[in-house]
Design the sequence.
């Protein structure tokens, strides 16, 4: 075993040597002339002059060695469909799709918006764009027409690819219908809409001259061979929009060579996965996790990747573990929210299937509370590794490195800075570095390593101001996350710095109070927000989902539980963090990617109207908050 600390140190002290070696993990059409160029910080360019292509690395380069091995495994528990593609079959499909796109005018540098449910064609169209050197922008299917229109106007695509509908919880969710609405609102609509018609929406309307049927065109290009378009390493590969502090979404722009190298390296050092194995990432291709670890990461590494359309508890809460057993999954990647959903079910489901192929479960996207982490670790009997990253970084910033060295898990911590990330926890006002155990904001000293955003699409100024403009004296990438490093060097993420609660002059992270509440055995899930208070400025108010609704069936039961939960917080964090009120609800309002709609909860708790709700998963959950507050 190698030494993870030495590996990390070298990545910071000798980035040229370190990343020059990692660059050999991918194929280059023309090798890079220079590993790192940073004449204009915070901009930087990786692998300058190198020419490569994401589709070549994900598909073509595996044909000789593993052409007959599985590449894509498509499973839908919604429609019952299962489809398997070897690398050779995937290559054929991607070529056909690339030929279709080319016939519709897609070329190098053109943008293509992909608005699709979790079907194989979604992945195939991303790879086809990459093959042509076109820039895809996948928009999550849960976004409403207005959000889609905003993204269309920013990316100005020549083509939009969609399906008629997705399926969720047994119901068809129309997509094309929303596309029609979005295009009606957009100022820069695409010339064509390419539709994968699954036959799920009999009401779908076709717009003559604009809408094109993918199946028809695909038939015309059955033996098409579309040559790879080689791109300079720093040309854009894709745009992925993420929410900022303003209403206008930020188009995170990723490069080609740096991204491919970062993903290839992560598959080895972080996920400790082997080519030929199977990875199951339960995200959606509309999120960064889906881009990096459903599509590009596993395929670049020569692994099979599972594309799953369905819920974790349908047809029953064992469905994921059956997939692991049936497809010999070695590496799984999910989110804490999903595990908390499973935690409400009978733990016997975790033992029903043979999970001997599974080596790791990785979790990311939100804080992983210790009780949930312990529950799933004990239940599965494999290491559960929390790791921390953002849409902007494209891969993990804080993680353990099982591919380099076995490092013990510390519950509640995503581990140490990943190689390439020179992380500093600093005081959010002064930029002064914090000592061990001291809370500050997590920042990264530039250059950002390969794989991280190159800029904000079409807006270099916004890239500089939003991410590097916090301190006058030093350029630091500002994550907006509270963090601390303990005496052993493990980092802890303490919630968003923009969700801070200031109560009577004391700053409290909502995450800290949530963790304390989660330690109460009666609670399944909680959200804490800061609510305006005349005397103290803000007070924490909690919304809690109970495991057993019988506990709160009566007013007396609710009052008793509220007191005992508040006592738990006082016990763990002291009276300063004591919630002012706790409301008990059946579910918490979340986005369809599982993030809590904290600002909307806070607005309702303060008697204000909610903001943008287009990403809301279950409207009833928000209504419940409204009712709870009104009582
Ligand atoms: P997104 O860009 O939507 O993936 O969200 C990134 C944000 O999710 C980060 O800034 C953190 O606030 C949060 N996050 C992601 N991973 C973790 C983690 N492992 N622990 C705590 N928070 C996380």
Sequence:
């Amino acid at each position: 075993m190698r030494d993870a600390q030495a590996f990390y140190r070298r990545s910071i002290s000798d980035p040229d040597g370190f990343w020059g070696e990692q660059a050999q993990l991918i194929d280059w059409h023309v090798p890079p002339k220079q590993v790192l160029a940073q004449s204009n910080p915070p901009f930087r360019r990786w692998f300058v002059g190198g020419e490569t292509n994401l589709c070549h690395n994900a598909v073509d380069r595996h044909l000789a060695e593993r052409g007959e091995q599985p590449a894509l495994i498509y499973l839908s528990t919604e429609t019952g469909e299962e489809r398997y593609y070897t690398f050779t079959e995937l290559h054929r499909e991607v070529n056909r799709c690339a030929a279709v796109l080319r016939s519709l005018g897609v070329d190098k540098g053109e943008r293509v918006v992909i608005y699709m449910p979790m079907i194989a064609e979604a992945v195939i169209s991303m790879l086809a764009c990459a093959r042509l050197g076109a820039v895809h922008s996948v928009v999550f299917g849960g976004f409403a027409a207005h959000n889609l229109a905003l993204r269309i106007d920013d990316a100005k695509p020549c083509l939009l690819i969609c399906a008629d509908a997705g399926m969720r919880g047994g119901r068809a969710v129309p997509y094309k219908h929303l596309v029609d609405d979005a295009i009606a609102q957009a100022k820069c609509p695409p010339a064509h809409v390419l539709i994968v018609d699954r036959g799920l929406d009999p009401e779908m309307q076709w717009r003559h001259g604009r809408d094109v049927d993918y199946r028809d065109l695909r038939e015309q290009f059955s033996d098409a061979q579309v040559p790879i378009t080689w791109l300079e390493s720093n040309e854009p590969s894709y745009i992925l929009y993420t929410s900022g502090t303003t209403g206008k979404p930020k188009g995170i722009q990723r490069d080609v060579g740096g991204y491919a190298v970062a993903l290839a390296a992560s598959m080895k050092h972080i996920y400790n996965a082997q080519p030929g194995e199977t990875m199951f990432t339960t995200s959606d291709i509309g999120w960064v996790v889906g881009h990096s670890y459903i599509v590009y990461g596993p395929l670049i590494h020569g692994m099979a990747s599972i594309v799953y359309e369905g819920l974790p508890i349908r047809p029953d809460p064992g469905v994921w573990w059956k997939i692991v057993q049936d497809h010999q999954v070695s590496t799984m990647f999910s989110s804490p929210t999903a595990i908390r959903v499973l935690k409400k079910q009978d733990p016997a489901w975790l033992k029903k299937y043979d999970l001997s192929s599974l080596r790791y479960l990785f979790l990311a996207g939100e804080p992983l509370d210790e009780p949930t982490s312990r529950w799933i670790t004990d239940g599965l009997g494999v290491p559960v590794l929390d790791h921390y990253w953002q849409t902007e970084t494209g891969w993990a910033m804080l993680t353990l490195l099982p591919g380099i060295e076995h490092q013990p898990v510390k519950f509640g911590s995503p581990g140490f800075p990943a190689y390439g990330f020179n992380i500093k926890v600093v005081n959010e006002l002064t930029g002064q570095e914090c000592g061990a155990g001291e809370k500050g904001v997590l920042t990264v000293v530039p250059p950002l390593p390969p794989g991280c955003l190159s800029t904000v699409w079409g807006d270099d100024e916004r890239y500089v101001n939003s991410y590097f403009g916090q301190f006058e004296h030093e350029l630091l990438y500002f994550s907006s996350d509270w963090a601390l490093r303990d005496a052993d060097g493990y980092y802890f993420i303490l919630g968003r710095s923009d969700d801070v609660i200031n109560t009577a002059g004391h700053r409290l992270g909502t995450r800290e109070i949530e963790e304390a509440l989660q330690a109460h055995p009666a609670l399944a899930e909680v959200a804490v927000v800061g609510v305006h208070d005349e005397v103290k400025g803000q007070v924490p108010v909690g919304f809690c989902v109970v495991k057993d609704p019988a506990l709160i069936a009566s007013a007396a039961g609710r009052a008793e539980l509220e007191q005992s939960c508040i006592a738990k917080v006082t016990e763990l964090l002291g009276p300063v963090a004591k919630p002012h009120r706790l409301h008990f609800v059946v579910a918490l309002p979340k986005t369809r990617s599982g993030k809590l709609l904290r600002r909307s909860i806070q607005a309702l708790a303060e008697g204000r109207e909610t903001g943008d709700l287009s990403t809301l998963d279950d409207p009833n959950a928000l209504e419940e908050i409204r009712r709870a507050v009104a009582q």
Notes: The longest helix spans residues 555-573.
